[in-house]
Amino acid sequence: MYRFLLTRQWVFVTLLALVLIPVMIELGFWQLHRHQARVAQNALIAKSLDAKPVPVEELTAPGETLPRSDYWRTVTATGRFDTEHEVVVRRRTNADDRVGFHVLTPFVLRDGKVLLVNRGWVPAAADQKAFPKVPPPPSGERTVKGRLMASQTTDASGIKDLKGLPDRQVMLISSEQQAQLLNKEVLGGYIELTDPATESPEQIAAPDHDSIGNHFAYAVQWWLFTAAVPVGWVFLVRREVRERREAQQASDADEAAEPVPA
Predict the structure, then answer these.
(1) Short name of one Pfam family for this protein (predicted)?
(2) Which residue spans within 110-260 are E strands per DSSP?
């Protein structure tokens, strides 16, 4: 009765089921790992935002790569803004998903080192190649405060570092690139300015660390799909057996009903 499982059609169905089961199990674990990573990141953000502000040079130095444990830490720095070497970062969105620029201004510390400060978002000019209208930062020496971030890379951000851009426009916030352009010692990473607060440029909002997304629910869904595969296979086999049995019974009944030759 079960010899039909050796037919081409049923061999294909069985092999497909055997392939789907480990694939969907792996997809479930992939979503679980994304959930765990999101939970860990939320915990890191909360811890960093709650930490006491420290001078920026306690956490980073020229040429250093910022460790992940220091992301979003609030830091302070005293110096002056260097608007002469200010650049804008292309294709950045604000809280309303409008596309514009981030304003990246060098901040010269008392010891001559430079801290890159992302002062926030401004809308693009009508001509994308033109430098946008950027309100100037406060002049003179002052103390600023902001969230410390790692330099951006194409691998981490997915943003291509395009060449041949208009003057004073960049694709990535990179302390290494700016160190070459400025020919000065630039601290690793940069800060998202929080104080002094400004309406324009529109300052970058603190990162969301409350939402955990739907990754755990997706993991459970994949595992439920995994369990459904063998259940579905058994259901199809039993239905096939039942249909074949009913067909055999009907055939036997037809044969029994045929008149016997005289």
Answers:
(1) SURF1
(2) 114-123, 142-149, 169-170, 190-195
